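Support request, priority: normal
Reporter: lab tech (M.K.)
Component: structure prediction queue

Hi team, I submitted a job for histidine kinase from Streptomyces canarius yesterday, and the status page still shows it as pending. I've pasted the exact input below so you can check whether something in the sequence is tripping the parser. The sequence length should be 332 residues. Please let me know if I need to resubmit or if it's stuck on your end.
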Amino acid sequence: MTSVADDLGSILDVIQQPAWAVDSDHRVSYANTPAAEFMGYERPSDLLGTDGRPVEHTYGWVRGHAIPEQAPSHHGTLTHADGSLLPVEWSLVPLIRPGGVAAVYIFRTGAGAPAVGREPKEAGPPRTVAGRLEADRHRRVAGSLQHGAQERLASALLGLNLAREHLDGERVPSSAAELLDGAIQDAQQALSHVRDVTAELYPGVLRLGGLPAALTALAAQWPVPVGVSGNLRERLPHAVEMHVYFLVREALGRAVHGARASRVHVVTELDLDLVVTVADDGTAPGEALDSAPLAAMADRVAVLEGALSVRHASGGGTTVCAVIPVERHSGY
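Reply from support: The job had stalled in the queue. We restarted it manually and it finished. Here are the results:
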């Protein structure tokens, strides 16, 4: 028979937003990695045993009291490890397990909650407005997948795992158990697919941690060493963050796959403008291989009203540099 941690770990570790399970005393019994990162802890285990209820919790359930069958979204705050308050929106998934009542909280952070009914201001050149609209659509669609489809799949998967647990030791046809096992596998794959699609649209680490954290995570995904440095520490307008993230990803793809670079370095420097540099030690840009990624990078920079330059030094690799006027995008 699987344990509570096994059941929850196979599900909560797949979803990108912070989530944890609580027992009937409201104490955290399992937490995923995004929850620990968001709350300022080094490890998910640091959250175990803490009170998992956000402030302004509307249910007030206690031992022996039933948890509501439906769990609409609610707004409130959590207390960070440093004592600061974190705004969150959350859904509550009740679980009825042998030996007691439990529930799973799935959180949407203040920075990551999709903006409902908010459109970017219609200001600036048409191409720039289109870029802002594109970034806003990416964020809304990713938020809808993450806080709609992903949460429902996670809830269904939890229910399927609990049903499978109840079948252990019972006299049921082997075909029924096999069908349930197959449904669990299908739901796991669907949940993983939703996670991957969401990451392609608007990576969770970009939404939660901003551009520096997202570029650090992106650097780890390549088969060659990719260094990340710079003075950028603050959040930028979401349109700037999204387009710059994909600009860097396209530059890395060009360097690694097109120029066969063995090493790349990404630098982000913020002063009056944001200057993003991607330098590699690969071969010179080639017209056939580089036309598509260079055009894509040029489009990213153009919608941000910036300037793009590409320089190649003989024997020294290629440097892609984008200069973005961040102040023009304030409020988006």
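The radius of gyration is 23 Å. The domain at 4-202 is CATH 3.30.450.20 (Beta-Lactamase). Let us know if anything else looks off. Ticket resolved.
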